[in-house]
């Protein structure tokens, strides 16, 4: 009580002290100052930018997207000509980014899982080879690896006439990988549509099998059944409909191939570089995930009478995946962001087409860079949101 | 049942010498049987790995060393004459070594960047090796006097001829970008990490937005932004250096990643430490500076080294906005008419890869070493 009395009647200025030393008030004042500084900075930047744009005679706005682009793109998944608009060029670039990212993610996942498991193998040679692969490629910049594949490997391949002949009329030369092009015939769409139907069916079966096992304890070969349906249904339909698919075989004409389908050397270099590089990180993630499952888990499974394969599938893998999946997604995200290095070897991705050609032609630096960044940012945020949702679903529920 | 009593008791007083293990279990055959050929599947793997190695290693070795050209003054040395195969063109690296290290820094002034690099590596060894005396003073020296001295030596002025940054290049630019990036991003990262964990809502939102924006976009767009948008943001007439613009971009980008690393460290500090600091009457900044940050930063040293490794690899991206770092200056020399042969691209890229690998691999080993060393502190 005495202490309290003393502070209360110390000086007439005590309320000033109370305000000055109050953490809440200090906090709000500090935040106000930061807000003010940010606003002033933004005003200053906007003012400068407006003045600079006036001086350079570039009006701010997104009208340039409808203007004629006038440059060509080497890989066009959708219709694009010199007369197309910049908006169309943007779409082509975005699609090319998606193509290289999706293919890269698939390849990197396969290589990464194989290498990660190999590194834990009891086979000395295999484990060492996996370690050497990981430690070498992980410590060399991706850009350098892309240049290596493009300039030191693919561009010194022989020309189309002397190219490496591969099975199924494919040919690997310095013009890229030439393959027969599939031409869908009458009724091929039905085969295509049967795939999602089969997947849905397999999912339903898995659900039914899970419920039945929970109720009766009887297990059902879900994997084999699902595989049978997903592969079997389209194949059966394909045969029943009379194989409605023909191939256009590429032919050598002059110094190059005519017809067929070409995977450009830029795309091959991108895929090789980006998937081999990302696979090293995925391999380490996989290894860490498997090591994170304690040996007690597999011992307990064995003591319940499960076989090694069942133990792996039912006990170890589900627990390892819980550890693996969050870093795996961030690796996928990194791969997608790293695909922007395509610019260096001339693969026409979003950055090369839009932040490169369109920016140089129109000079709309702010709009172009902002749109490009927004695309990547949106991708990251969507992935992060999905990840949080997934994590909440699979997270260990502790009592 | 009665016990059989006898006077003669047979007791062996010394141990038998152990038998040698069966020949098939000891030595190399045993080891190979256990580690390479334990099952049909393993035999298949081992044989295919051996086949791969035999197929891959000898030609690589032959290309790198046996068929390689070590000396020469121009492309003639590395051109195949009369049918023989020509491997790596090390003569090219030899002739361009100075350019790959310093770029087009004037030849008479190259002692300056050389001196800076020697001082940098010496200083780094001083503060990175735990047994060195007076490491705290070393850190302060490296953070205060060294940058000033470096700037003076590299750029010039005060008696030294000025060398514009457009003449800098090679390993010099790689190191300048990487080291400036890490040093500038550390304080930024600390502030952002504290901001993200702050109880003040507005500060928290600003930090989260800042961190997530930089982490969500590729570095290449950040560098583009720094090189084409930054000049627009500044008053007309203020036009600063291309290298400096790249440095700003790299520092902001790395700062966001650093913030997340440091946040991890802050989250690992037990709540009792915060409460202990508060019970001693320490204010926010005091408790952060004296109690929390020293512990948090110590935990995340491996993480910081790992971000440094990725930053070091990412410096190669400045090539795309027209700066000539190690990779950039090697790449630029591919079009040198004096040297243009098919083998210089692989040779140059393998050389660059080797340099980057040595730096990154030693840093990752250092990070693992520190991790082991620091692990003992908190174990009970």
Describe the structure.
Among the domains of chain A are: 2-56; 86-139 and 272-394, MetI-like (MetI-like fold), CATH 1.10.3720.10. Chain A is 67% helix and 7% strand. Chain A contains 13 helices and 8 strands. Chain A has helices spanning 2-8, 14-20, 23-56, 86-119, 124-138, 142-153, 188-216, 222-240, 265-292, 295-303, 308-338, 350-362, 365-394, and strands spanning 164-166, 170-173, 176-179, 181-184, 245-248, 251-253, 256-258, 261-263. By secondary structure, chain B is mostly helical. Chain B is built from 15 helices and no strands. Chain B has helices spanning 27-35, 40-66, 90-102, 111-128, 135-143, 145-155, 171-196, 201-216, 219-233, 242-268, 271-279, 284-299, 301-314, 326-332, 344-375. At the A-B interface, helix 3, helix 5, helix 6, helix 12 and helix 13 of A face helix 2, helix 8, helix 9, helix 13 and helix 15 of B.
Task: Tell me briefly what this model is.
Chain A is of the alpha+beta class. Chain A has 13 helices and 8 strands. In chain A, helix 4 packs antiparallel against helix 5, helix 7 runs antiparallel to helix 8 and helix 12 runs antiparallel to helix 13.
Label the CATH architecture of the domain at 86-139 and 272-394 in chain A: Orthogonal Bundle
Q: Span from first to last CA of chain A?
A: 45 Å
Arrangement of strands in the largest sheet of chain A? 1-2-3-8
Task: Kindly identify the CATH topology of the domain at 86-139 and 272-394 in chain A.
Answer: MetI-like fold
Write the CATH homologous superfamily of the domain at 86-139 and 272-394 in chain A: MetI-like
Please state the oligomeric state of the protein chains shown.
heterodimer
Into which percentage range does the β-strand content of chain A fall? Answer: 5-15%
N-to-C series of helices and strands of chain A:
HHHHHHEEEEHHEEEEHHHHH
